[in-house]
Design goal:
Blueprint lengths: L2 H30 L4 H8 L3 H4 L1 H24 L1 H18 L6 H16 L1 H16 L3 H30 L3 H4 L1 H15 L11 H6 L3 H19 L9 H18 L7 H6 L1 H30 L5 H7 L2 H20 L1 H18 L9 H29 L5 H26 L6 H22 L7 H4 L5
Length: about 475
Amino acid sequence: MTASADTARPRTGSAVAALSLGTLLNPLNSSMIAVALVPLQHDFGVDVTAVTWVITSFYLASAAGQPLMGRLGDRFGPRRLFLFGMVVVALACALTPFAGSFAAVCTGRVALAIGTATAFPSAIAMLRPLAASSNVGTPRLLGRIQIANTSGAAIGPVLGGALITFLGWQSIFWVNVPLAALAFAGAWLFAPKDAERARTPLRQTLAESDIPGILLFVATLTSLLIFLLDLEPQPLWWLLPVCVAAGALFVWRELRTAHPFLDLRLLAANRRLMLVYLSFAIFNVVYYSAFFGLPQFLQTHGGYSAGVAGLLMFPLAAVTIVITPLAARAIESIGLRPTLVTGAIALVVGAGLLAVAAFTTAPWVVLLLTAALGIPYCVVSIGMNQALYSSARPEDAGVAAGIFQTSRYVGAIVATTVLGLLFSGGTTSGNWLAAVGVATVLAVVHLALLVFVRPRSRGAAEGAPA
């Protein structure tokens, strides 16, 4: 090991810490809000259906924002985009607590989603120069970032419950301000500087950002989501042709434009990458079905308070911190595919075990169930991140990472919609078993798909240029 490599390691560690903190903010805010729904209902006088839009708006903005942010990172530089995103987060979270209407809170959540959407694609794009300068394998660096992603989602209910109990719902926004400031400072000081890029006029940038494609994508998802959530008491049938038309126009637009929002041609030309996205979306349907469904079941069927239900989900975070570094080392030692398949098998087992909660919600049982689910979550998550890294071309890293995060939030949207449909008749043991059945079947499908997801080579999985 050279002296320059020894010198680079502390700087690399500080840069990865800052990038990890930035990527934590999106999953953290996607889960903290769950315990704020009742206070928001009371403060703004909205019903249960309306208040869910504070979650849905965040997911829709995240799903649309990730690929766009990836493209902007490729154009302007990932470091610049990361710093810009942290500024947006700090401003949005400093102002939203003073919102005078529920619509303004949703608007603040959209701004928060857009700001946090810059972090993951920017971090992925900066991994290659960080790995090259420090001689640290990319799976290990990905593992550190993945710990932030998985832990952020897992500790959200616990942290959100504590903040709301003592400081009110406004505090789940304010807590982001110092976190974003720390991430900004760390990236400013330690992240690799962006390579010089040709100056591009704002008008050209907007033209190449495919705003019509983004709007059609959001229209397709929104119309489908509203239709599914409003099946009772009277379905809004007119939304189905709107959804189909918007979807068809979106595909037509993306195949014809020179700068698509979602590069469907890239997916068609890279079968391995397309399977990574599909597998990751299905995986997230399984995970978020448990993550959002179990706390609801514990509160309504098990009689637990929101705070206690959040604490019972904590093993997800604890297991993640312990297992994720081991999963990163497993990828380096035995390879990506065996690690992924092992995690997928554990996902099938973990999803099936959730059925036990229909018969007993004793605290020790719930703690074991959430711990069992935490194992496949961190193993599959870091494995899919590495599969993305080894399947995408270096020049497509930002866009590929953005689409990857979109598949995460599409999975989350599908999961919340399925839960809404299954729990519409009440959060009973029978409905919980139905939700577990759907999750388990999808976990089996996810395992079957992984048979077709093959990394390019051992070298690619260890950080060699793909």
